[in-house]
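Need geranylgeranyl diphosphate reductase's 3D structure for a figure. Predict it.
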Amino acid sequence: MSGVMAMPVAAVRAAPVQAAPVARGSAAPAPTLKTSSSVAVMGLAATAVTAAAAGRSGRARNGLAQGLHGKQQVKRSLSSAKVVVCAGVNFPEGRKLRVAVVGGGPAGASAADQLAKDGVETFLIERKMDNCKPCGGAIPLCMIDEFDLPKDIVDRQVRKMTMISPTNKEVQIGQTLKDDEFIGMVRREVLDDFLRQRAKTNGATLINGLFLGMTLPEKKGDSYVLTYNDYAGEEGNARKGEKKTLEVDVVIGADGANSRVAKDIEAGDYEYAIAFQERMTIPDNKMEYYKDRAEMYVGEDVSPDFYAWVFPKCDHVAVGTGTVVDKKGIQRYQQGIRDRAAPRIEGGKIIRVEAHPIPEHPRPWRVKDRAILVGDAAGYVTKCSGEGIYFAAKSGRMCAETIVKNSMQGVRMIDEADLMEHLREWDSRYGPTYLVLDLLQKIFYTSDAARESFVELCEEEYVQKVTFDSYLYKTVQGNDPVGDLKLGWKTLSSLYKYNNQKTPDPMRTLA
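Structure prediction for geranylgeranyl diphosphate reductase:
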């Protein structure tokens, strides 16, 4: 799920997070947020990612991973034996670093593309080549140029964002956008396929198969042995596939919130949200309203701890919601957004129903030996906005760049210390924003009174400018002390007003 939301938050003038050096066998410390002495409460808006502890397990490591049917030892003949190469040692002539990327979404496809393009022998395993993830599908403007995406991959250029409060108060928050600025709306099946095919064109071997598990190296320098069902040539949901194995030096787990790679490397569990979405075709006159507009609804009726959305696609709208604290009630909240948006989606016909878990924070461990997690598998989804597409693709590419650099474009073996370098860089760059967005969610998503205050603050031009600049270009904008102080005072006043008013505002009717 990926979205953008006006976000009045603490005006944090954060110095870059400095990750302490990590000793072998220990967990990387959580990034610390350094601020100046003048911090205005609730002022800056930001949209970026990750805050939790980077690290790896210090537990004893078994030589074999738990497979689907118990522990299995893989017997190898002398003829199939591989040359054992220690980290930092060059491979024999003609041999390249072999990397398996499990999962072909934005994270996996971007990692595979970068690896293959830079000379690493790359295998990309994806079970569903037509996957339609229940995702709002919003991408920032900077992603189009940064990832060299064709303009026609964007279904809609959204320049109007409407925030709708629990009492249906509407605030238009796109007024600060320039003529050439917009939020891109994409369909995941289109975006993901483009990224995978580009990786294939650049040299990655694309495998249509279901990853079943892997055997971890028995000793230093040994290969990972991946087992998967190869679906090549088969179609439909009843595919059985042919069981195959693949030996590689490095594994990148980009297989989503239910990552099997994470399970095999004992990366630990994390809290997750359930996202539920219905794609609907609506009458032409109503679709005209959404041609360049997206809507975000807040209220206890649509989500107790998140927001609901109506996002436009090429010829339909995506209507959905999400929650962490009441997963069993997701159908009730979906009915809530249908009811709230009824005047604008009346006559709509459901063409697809989608549901999926969305991580709420990074996993306890994201790397073990020569296996590492990226994207949703690592937990790189922001609080409040639920944005994940850009950060998934970014984490995959950054991880691949680190591997390419430390392997000298695939001619040397790498180890856990090389992969930890990527985690330190990631946490340093995006850690502060995770902390800020987590704080924002705790303040404004707790009650309908707080949500009313939140929508009221979104009327502020300063909030809108900082929010959109931060979201579109993935850089923290603002740093206007006067603006921060004014917004801080208005935030406190608004929260006090709505939490202490004796008679709630009446429910409005949407036009």
